[in-house]
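Take a record.
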Amino acid sequence: MTETLAVHTVEGFLSLEEITQLTKLLDDHLATTGWAPVRPSDGITPPDEIQEILAIALQRALPAIQRTFPAVAGATAWDYHDLGPGDGIDPHLHGVGDPDERPQRVARMAFHLQEADQGGQFYVDTSSSEALWTDRTADEGSAFAPGTRFAREISHHATPETIAALRDVPRTRWTSAPPAGTAIVYGAQLVHGVETVRQGRLRKLITNLLDQPQH
């Protein structure tokens, strides 16, 4: 449970050369596909060439990640998000999914390929409110220690009533300003989002970190 509520950073996750290479590959992919997000929370899965660069970087960073998230052993494919002025991602909570399934999502990892000129900061919200939690706890044989509690899943696609209820939960916001080239790792049971982009363009890549290698 501690890992699903932790926050960590990996400075130097990608080198300047890797960032330049990824940016060119993504620009070529977007030009070829014509993809554009309908909503700020929409993403696209980049092609294998991009996934390979990110997989190598993740493997290189795994020892640093495992200091705070020792259960992490693999990741899903990365998604790409592209936000412009007026775009932001409202507070939401993914949770761990089905706690009895394997592999299990432990955390998520985000890398800003390009920062917005103003706004667009990533944040997590912490809270002691019971409103964020279900009554379910882990049983023997689960991927989690017996008795672990599980947060509610309040996704981008939740009902307006559920999203409104989350807004009413008392929370403390922690906004990040990481150095260039830094990846942020945040537990799967943390409320998080992206501040509204006021100027410029925010380009980010996100993956789920798992407790088993993804084949």
